[in-house]
Amino acid sequence: MPGRLRGRVPGLLLAGAAVLGATATAHAQAGTLVGHVLDSAGAPVPNADVVLAAGTRTTAVDVNGRFQFSGVPAGYHTVMARAIGYGFTSARVQVPPDDTGQVEIRMRARARWLSPIEVTVSAEAALLPDFARRRRAGFGYFVSRAEIEAANPITLSQYLRRIPVIRIRESLGLAQAVSSRGPRTELVDGAVMAVPCVMRIALDGQLQPEEVGLNIVAPGEIGGIEIYPGPSTIPAEFAAWSNEIGCGLIVVWTRRR
User: Fold this and answer.
1) CB of 163 within 8 A of CB of 227?
2) Whole-model pTM above 0.70?
3) In this structure, how many other beta carbons lie within 10 angstroms of the beta carbon of residue 154?
């Protein structure tokens, strides 16, 4: 028995060394992401949250609008800032291996809502008038705040699984909506390849990069969702994005506070 154990020790030590080496390599390939969230005049935005595109990490800025993420995999990342009174804003940044990537996010103030006049209208029409108007037109799929609250989903991707024209694709912690019509073709190195037809996301009227995942916004922050499964269903208001939304469009409106 002792002889058999001694024979195993070198193998165990080698396996342990391999694991430690792989861990050390992974850490060496990670970096730090730091940045500032400012308004259009260059002043810090108070109470802003910053989210990595996969939606799995969130942090708050300090009084100077500064934020930091440690242990970020090396490569390009999309970060998004959100704050009450401002529209969602995203930025692209490169994080070098074992080094620091820096980014500055400029946010634009959102129009303030005036105190309501005493008129009897639905809450949806009062807070999201364009959403309500497009819903009456009958194109696309629409989800109200009340429907989201009734379902009480943990994530947006969890809720969207019930929409028949959407399939949810998850990879490396990133959840994306894929058109149920099937893949699209793309020319890669002279060869035609089938790739997932990813539906693009717009937050508060701003089209987001394709790598931004669905769970960048929590269900509790959503006021309404518009889903357009193909180009023929997309309203004229979003025609400026026609070259980028051939696989469909999901428009998410945050709650008006």
Assistant:
1) yes
2) no
3) 10
Q: What percent of the chain has pLDDT over 70?
A: 80
- Alpha-carbon distance of 73 to 52, in angstroms, equals 11
What's the first-to-final CA gap in the chain, in angstroms?
A: 71
Query: Tokens at residue 128, please?
Result: 């999201």
pLDDT value of residue 82: 80
Contact status, residue 59 vs residue 127, Cβ threshold 8 Å: no
Predicted local confidence at residue 76, as pLDDT: 86
Helices (H), the chain: 2-28, 123-127, 129-137, 145-151, 156-160
* Structural contact between residues 53 and 213, judged by C-beta atoms closer than 8 angstroms: yes
Q: What is the C-alpha to C-alpha distance for residues 171 and 12, in angstroms, rounded to an integer?
A: 33
pLDDT digits (tens, 9 = 90+) for 119-128: 444 555 555 7
Eight-state DSSP code of residue 77: E
For 123-254, the fitting CATH number among 2.170.130.10, 2.60.120.10, 2.60.40.60, 2.30.30.60 is 2.170.130.10
DSSP 121-177: --HHHHH-HHHHHHHHHT-SEEEEHHHHHHH--SSHHHHHTT-TTEEEEEETTEEEE
The answer regarding whether domain 27-107 maps to CATH 3.80.10.10 reads no
Q: Which residues contact 144 (CB under 8 A, 6 or more apart)?
A: 124, 224
